[in-house]
Structures are given as structure tokens and as C-alpha cells.
Write a structure and sequence with these properties.
By secondary structure, the protein is α/β, with parallel strands linked by helices. The chain has two domains: 3-30 and 294-400, Alpha-Beta Complex (Aspartate Aminotransferase, domain 1), CATH 3.90.1150; 46-291, Aspartate Aminotransferase, domain 2 (3-Layer(aba) Sandwich), CATH 3.40.640. Helices cover 38% and strands 13% of the residues. It is built from 14 helices and 13 strands. The strands form three sheets. A seven-stranded mixed beta sheet has the order 2-8-7-6-5-3-4, with helices on both faces. The longest helix has 22 residues, at 295-316. Catalyzes the cleavage of L-kynurenine (L-Kyn) and L-3-hydroxykynurenine (L-3OHKyn) into anthranilic acid (AA) and 3-hydroxyanthranilic acid (3-OHAA), respectively.
Length: 406
């Protein structure tokens, strides 16, 4: 594919106008939306109003006037439309890690005869770390098995199965419906981590039979650094859920200020403390931008971008090994390539204004976010990488130094 052909595809892209809704720096090719989404332009005005008027002028009155108090439910209902859930089944709260802990502790308490929590070895570290802590708190074990062995490891004494729908490093995607069905045969609840799925791949939690899920707000939902996460519980499972973390905002009557705790009805019980209002309002802008786009068109473009990227990489950068499945139904919306020198190569790319990221020990990860990634972006990124490899620019000594964030 030539640069002119890439530009022609951009001209024919039905999603091209959505790129204008993001404040992308001129001259920068951003392929890391799978780690931190770009800034929605709408968020600048919303945040200015939230700080100067809602907070600065109206002060505490904005909890009622601007419905700060209802933001977790309101934005949760919007995210429900992205992930294929119903109103009242998703709420925005805390971080992905805390939401995993809330679900795991609540579910293990419902299965007192269980001996272990089950997850995948090589899962995203926070999932494994949180699961280990939840298992220790429940007096049971954490059992980790390979991806290929997950289905066969589900047993009657499994307290809960925790899986990341799209793997953070490889981009491999589980068959959610098949594994949920397999777990249901032994009444084992499944918690799906949607951090690399929500806004990236087609999701229909209801159709897949999923009952519990968590997800990240700052990747494909473009909610900003450290944006609040979300948690999903199917309506019929909510009443039985009693998280170990009981905060005043999760109480049925928070402003009665009573000593005794009574869980709020529905998803309200998944709240703990005071909501981070400014972060919530920024996240809402990102979710609104996602809802403004056609979901089928997003996934179709993601596949086209992936095919273009992997094709160009095979042609122009043959020293890299693709580790992401090529079958669209078995992957997410990022492409990962293995190379022994992926770290310094990625540093050289960033200095050349092509921003991807690195995942240890040897993976260069390039995110494809159809709302704002163009075909020309992909073409130019591979062109820059090919030049870096040909000239061995990545061998500069300063590129061997690891930074705190990779």
C-alpha cells in the first residue's frame, strides 16, 4: 500500500470526522490509545465549567444542581450501551482493581465450600495481585493455569473465575459466551475484565450470558489519566451481592448517617466513598464521543487498520514477529510485535513522534483506536519504524535506559 492509497482510504472513511473531536498534537502519530486515550475536545470546556462555575461559583450546591451525586449511575447507564448491558446494570466507581476486589470478595462469600479462585497465568498483574489478596482474605487459594487449560480447570470447588477478555499484551480474545457457559455448568461465577475490550471490540454482555464484569475508563473510553472504572452486575444477581468494602455512598440511606449499614438497592451498593466528580465528568465526555460513533463501523475500521498495519510490518519490518491472533474474532484492537530489542526501538519511535508502548520482556504494542487513528497514521508509523531499523537509530545508548513508565 502506498501513502496515496492510505490517504484515499481516509477520504472514504465514514468515521473520519470523529478525529476532529480529539485534541491530537500536530505532527504526532498516536498509537497508544489502548493505554491512555486521547483528549476529547469537549472535555476541555466541560472541565473548565466544572471547575470555574460548578465548583468555583456554585460550590456544594452542585451536588444537587449539577447532579454530581447521580454521575456514577448516569455515566454507568451510558457505558451499558457500549458493552451491551441494560440501564441499572453498570455503575462507575473506583478503579478496576478495587472493583475486582469488591466482586471477588462478594462472590467467594456466596461459595463457602470453594477452595480456590481461578485465573490465567500471565494475566494482567493487577488482576492476579488482587485475586491473590481476595483469596488470602477468604482463606482459600489462587490457582493460575495456562490459557489453553482454563476451561478444563473450572471445577465445583472454584469460587470464581477471573479472566481478561482481551489480553493486555498479546491482544488475544476469549470466547466470552463459550467460557461463561462452561463455568455455568458448575455454577462458577465469571468476572470479565473488559479493560482492553470496552470501546475496542463488539460487546454484548447480555447475549453472552455474562453476569459480572469490570472495565477501565481511560483507555478506549478516553476518560483521561486515572479515570474511574466501571463495574457490571446482571440485574438478577445484584440483590445477593454483598461486597466486603462497605462505604457510606453504598448505603441505602447515606444521608441518614446511621451506624448500621444497609446495602443500597441495585448497583448503588457497589459505591464506597465520595465520587471523584471532576474525573467522572471528563470520562463522560469520552463515553459520549464513543456513543456518537457507529459501533459496527468502528469494528470494521479496526479490522482494516489491523490488516494494513500487519501487512506493512511483514513487508517492511520483517524482523518483528506478530504475536496477536490474525483472526478478528480472536483478538482486540491492538497489535503486538515481538523483538529482542523492543524497548530501545520503542524509545526511538517515541523520539520520532510515533507513540506506541512496550510490554516486558520483548513486545512493541501498537494501539488502533478507530475514532481517531487514520490509515495515514498507520502508513507513516511503519515508514518511520522501517527507517529506524534500517539506520539502527535505536542503538543510541540513551535508548537503553528504562523509564518508570513503559
Amino acid at each position: 500500500m502506498t501513502l496515496d492509497e492510505a490517504r484515499a482510504r481516509d477520504a472514504a472513511d465514514p468515521l473520519r470526522h470523529h478525529r476532529d473531536g480529539f485534541a491530537l498534537p500536530a505532527g504526532t502519530i498516536y498509537l497508544d490509545g489502548n493505554s491512555l486515550g486521547a483528549l476529547p475536545r469537549a472535555a476541555v470546556a466541560v472541565m473548565h465549567d466544572a471547575v470555574t462555575r460548578q465548583w468555583g461559583e456554585r460550590l456544594i450546591r452542585s451536588w444537587n444542581e449539577a447532579d454530581w451525586i447521580g454521575a456514577p449511575q448516569r455515566i454507568g447507564d451510558k457505558i451499558a450501551r457500549v458493552v451491551g448491558a441494560k440501564d441499572g446494570e453498570v455503575i462507575v466507581a473506583d478503579s478496576t482493581s478495587i472493583n475486582i476486589f469488591k466482586l471477588l470478595t462478594a462472590l467467594t462469600a456466596q461459595r463457602p465450600e470453594a477452595t480456590h479462585i481461578l485465573s490465567e497465568s500471565g494475566n494482567f498483574p493487577t488482576d492476579v495481585h488482587i485475586a491473590a489478596g481476595a483469596a488470602r482474605a477468604a482463606g482459600i487459594d489462587l490457582r493460575l493455569v495456562t490459557r489453553a487449560d482454563i476451561a478444563g480447570a473450572i471445577a465445583d470447588d472454584t469460587a470464581a473465575l477471573l479472566l481478561t477478555h482481551v489480553h493486555y499484551k498479546s491482544g488475544a480474545r476469549y470466547d466470552m459466551a463459550a467460557l461463561t457457559t462452561a463455568a455455568r455448568a458448575t455454577s462458577v461465577p465469571v468476572i470479565w475484565d473488559l479493560s482492553h475490550s470496552a470501546g475496542a471490540v463488539p460487546l454484548d454482555l447480555a447475549a453472552a450470558g455474562a453476569e459480572y464484569a469490570v472495565g477501565c475508563g481511560y483507555k478506549y473510553l478516553n476518560g483521561g489519566p486515572g479515570a474511574p472504572a466501571f463495574v457490571y452486575v446482571a440485574r438478577e444477581r445484584q440483590a445477593a451481592l454483598r461486597p466486603a468494602l462497605q462505604g457510606w455512598m453504598g448505603d441505602a440511606r447515606p444521608f441518614a448517617f446511621e451506624d448500621a449499614y444497609e446495602p443500597a438497592p441495585g448497583m448503588g451498593r457497589m459505591l464506597i466513598g465520595t465520587a471523584p466528580v471532576l474525573s467522572l465528568l471528563a470520562l463522560e465526555c469520552g463515553v459520549d464521543a464513543m456513543l456518537a460513533a457507529d459501533r459496527d463501523a468502528l469494528w470494521a475500521k479496526s479490522q482494516e487498520l489491523f490488516d494494513m498495519l500487519t501487512g506493512l510490518m511483514a513487508e517492511r519490518c520483517p524482523d518483528f514477529t506478530l504475536v496477536t491472533p490474525t483472526d478478528a474474532e480472536r483478538r482486540g484492537s491492538h497489535a503486538s510485535f515481538a523483538h529482542a530489542d523492543a524497548w530501545p526501538i520503542n524509545r526511538a519511535l517515541i523520539d520520532a513522534q510515533v507513540i506506541g508502548d512496550f510490554r516486558a520482556p520483548d513486545v512493541l504494542r501498537l494501539g488502533l483506536t478507530p475514532l481517531y487513528t487514520s490509515f495515514e497514521d498507520v502508513w507513516r508509523a511503519v515508514d518511520v519504524l522501517a527507517d529506524i531499523m534500517a539506520n539502527e537509530t535505536w542503538r543510541k545508548p540513551e535508548y537503553a535506559v528504562r523509564s518508570a513508565v513503559t
